[in-house]
Amino acid sequence: MIDTVLGSPTRISIILALWRRGEMNLAELARLVNSDQRSVARHLRQLACHGIVETKLVGRTKLYRLSGNPAVRQLAEALAAADRQLSALVRESGLAGGGRQEAARA
């Protein structure tokens, strides 16, 4: 199950964006995860199908948010923590960008 939910960098980015920013519409999410709306909509449908994302209609606008389920909240917290720690590790090790080749040569 977890491989289905987290099997895409876009789905992980969507979960993180909703965790950090809260409710958003499709256009906002697509901009934040740097993807086109069609692709984000497809990923949102999959996440909704698995109970990760909920929708709310406000007028003609559909808003997306993380489910209130405690397991979903724990998943989002864990992803956010891992993202922060890995980002710090990359910065500290100098592997951001082209540093990989330099580190491999050392």
The gist of it:
This protein is an alpha+beta fold and 106 residues long. It has helices at 2-6, 9-21, 26-32, 37-49, 70-93, 99-105; strands spanning 24-25, 53-58, 61-66. The protein is 65% helix and 13% strand.
Q: Can you characterise this structure?
A:
There is one protein chain. The protein has 106 residues and is α+β, with helices and mostly antiparallel strands. The chain has a single domain (2-105), classed as Arc Repressor Mutant, subunit A (Orthogonal Bundle). 65% of the residues lie in helices and 13% in strands. The protein has helices at 2-6, 9-21, 26-32, 37-49, 70-93, 99-105; strands spanning 24-25, 53-58, 61-66. The protein has a 3-stranded antiparallel beta sheet with strand order 1-3-2. Helix 2 crosses helix 5. It is globular, with a radius of gyration of 16 Å. The N and C termini lie far apart (40 Å).
